[in-house]
């Protein structure tokens, strides 16, 4: 199939899914099923393959592709997110698609791969910040994770630091992938803003599990000195 010149409709999309299935890597499917840890069907396509297909779709009728009703496969959802990241359009349009797509996220793999490809946020940080902040303050676990990991990926800078600490502390959702997102964010903050994050670890409203997981991730980092690893160990709750 020529993904760039494809005109998307119900029939062409059905043919597209059949073609994806024909590319299946069974060993990778078994491996990916284990690491995703979610009730979702995986075809078994490696990330570079998915990314290459998404790039080609984004050069053509990408809005027609996104208008199709997606099915049950992990790769379908991942592709939709990747296409949004590669699409060339005004930031206002991309923002609308990002907000709609967060309703489709139902596992950490889709969430994090989507964020990793949203280079437009890196270019337009100030414009997208209110949206990211709103996601982090949501009640939905995947929107919260989207907000936290997006902050970690694009906003760890001095001007956002105080608000990021505040948002991280305000999260009340106790879902595993939310708490892991908090811990990952705090550990990355420590690497980039060591002194400020050290003070935060000394006085915050994080629950015991999240605080200790953040400390664990700090201690596992190759970018943290042995002295600091011992120091943060003393801050476990």
Task: Explain this structure.
This is DNA alkylation repair enzyme. It holds the Pfam family DNA_alkylation. With 237 residues, this protein is mainly alpha-helical. It has two domains: 1-117, no CATH class; 120-236. It contains 15 helices and no strands. It has helices at 10-22, 26-36, 47-58, 62-66, 74-86, 91-101, 108-116, 119-123, 125-136, 141-154, 161-170, 176-192, 194-202, 208-220, 226-233. Helix 5 (74-86) runs antiparallel to helix 6 (91-101), helix 9 runs antiparallel to helix 10 and helix 14 packs antiparallel against helix 15. The protein starts with 9 loop residues before the first helix and ends with a helix.
Which blocks of ≥5 consecutive residues have pLDDT under 50?
Answer: none
What percentage of residues falls in helices of 4 or more residues? 55-70%
The ordered H/E elements are HHHHHHHHHHHHHHH
What structural class is derived from the secondary structure elements? Answer: mainly alpha
Assembly of the depicted chains: single chain
The count of domains is 2
Biggest sheet descriptor: none
Shape descriptor: elongated
Rg for CA atoms: 19 Å
Number of helices: 15
Count of beta strands: 0
Strand content: under 5%
Question: What is the mean pLDDT?
Answer: 95
Pfam families: DNA_alkylation
Organism: Fusobacterium ulcerans 12-1B
Protein name: DNA alkylation repair enzyme
């Amino acid at each position: 199939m020529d993904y760039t010149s494809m005109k998307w409709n119900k029939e062409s999309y059905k043919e597209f899914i059949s073609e994806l299935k024909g590319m299946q890597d069974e060993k990778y499917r078994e491996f990916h099923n284990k690491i995703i840890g979610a009730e979702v069907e995986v075809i078994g396509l490696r990330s570079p393959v998915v990314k290459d297909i998404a790039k080609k779709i984004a050069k053509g009728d990408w809005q027609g592709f996104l208008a199709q009703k997606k099915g049950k496969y992990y790769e379908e959802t991942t592709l939709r997110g990747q296409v949004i990241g590669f699409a060339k359009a005004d930031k206002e349009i991309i923002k609308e698609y990002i907000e709609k797509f967060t309703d489709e996220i139902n596992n950490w793999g889709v969430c994090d791969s989507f964020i990793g490809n949203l280079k437009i946020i890196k270019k337009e940080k100030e414009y997208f910040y209110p949206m990211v902040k709103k996601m982090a303050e949501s009640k939905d676990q995947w929107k919260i994770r989207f907000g936290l990991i997006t902050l970690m990926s694009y906003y760890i800078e001095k001007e956002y630091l105080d608000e990021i600490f505040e948002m991280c502390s305000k999260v009340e959702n106790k879902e595993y992938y939310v708490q892991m997102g908090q811990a990952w964010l705090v550990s990355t903050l420590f690497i980039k803003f060591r002194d400020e994050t050290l003070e935060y670890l000394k006085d915050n409203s994080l629950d015991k599990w999240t605080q200790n997981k953040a400390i664990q991730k700090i201690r596992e980092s190759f970018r943290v000195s042995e002295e600091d690893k011992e120091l943060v160990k003393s801050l476990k709750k």
